[in-house]
Amino acid sequence: KNVGYVRDPYFFKFGVHPDGTSRRLAGAIFAIYRIVDGQKLYLDLSPATDLKNKWVASTDALHDDRVNKFVSDKDGLVNTGERFLSAGTYYFEELQSVPGYELDEKSRAIKIEIPDSWLDDDDNYRYVLIDGQPMKENIGGIVTPEMISIGNPRVYNYTDRSSTSSESDPTPPTGQSDQLDKPTGAGATGYLPAMSDWQNLSLVLIGIGLLTLATYFLIKHKKARNHP
């Protein structure tokens, strides 16, 4: 599959949760870019000519139909699939993350290092490095079930904390009131009696006064009759 020193890189996308567990993420969208004379150029979707790829500048790679996109599958595998890259340094850029996971700066620049030979001077195999991790290859250039099971090299996304935390105030503990205690019973609108309560009290006092006055005159009248 690989011809000369060109290679077709791949990696696995994993999501990490707050409890430390992880899972493979399907549906994350990536592009490949390189820096040429300070300019960021993306791998074009058009077929390569003589194993030479075309590169294009773009201000919106996600929605640019010219840019070649790579999507993680159910195993989290992001595979370039015969889009061979010659020796040099490139980058995977995550254009769109899986919902619920953060898209951080590291995910926008996942380094790809492709050596200029298969073996070094001591006949040791020279691996393609993805984010500094060696990428295993076989003669056919196929990502085998065993390689998928191992799931290396890996790139991680972390859960989006803003989507798991509530912006509203915490719910008060059970039994705790969110209002100040207020007096109950008569005059419950405040600590002093209401106006209607004052009126009722005045009528009662007047009634008591009249009754007392009537009793006084009645007693005085009886005394006057008993002492002519």
Automatic annotation (TrEMBL):
Residue intervals of the SpaA-like prealbumin fold domain: 21-113
Kindly provide the name given to this protein in its UniProt entry: SpaA-like prealbumin fold domain-containing protein
Which stretches of sequence are listed as region Disordered?
Answer: 154-186
Q: Which UniProt keywords apply?
A: Membrane, Transmembrane, Transmembrane helix
Q: Which positions, given as ranges, span the membrane? A: 201-219
Looking up InterPro entries in the UniProt record yields:
Ig-like_fold (IPR013783), SpaA_PFL_dom_1 (IPR041033)
| Organism listed in the record | Lacticaseibacillus paracasei subsp. paracasei Lpp71
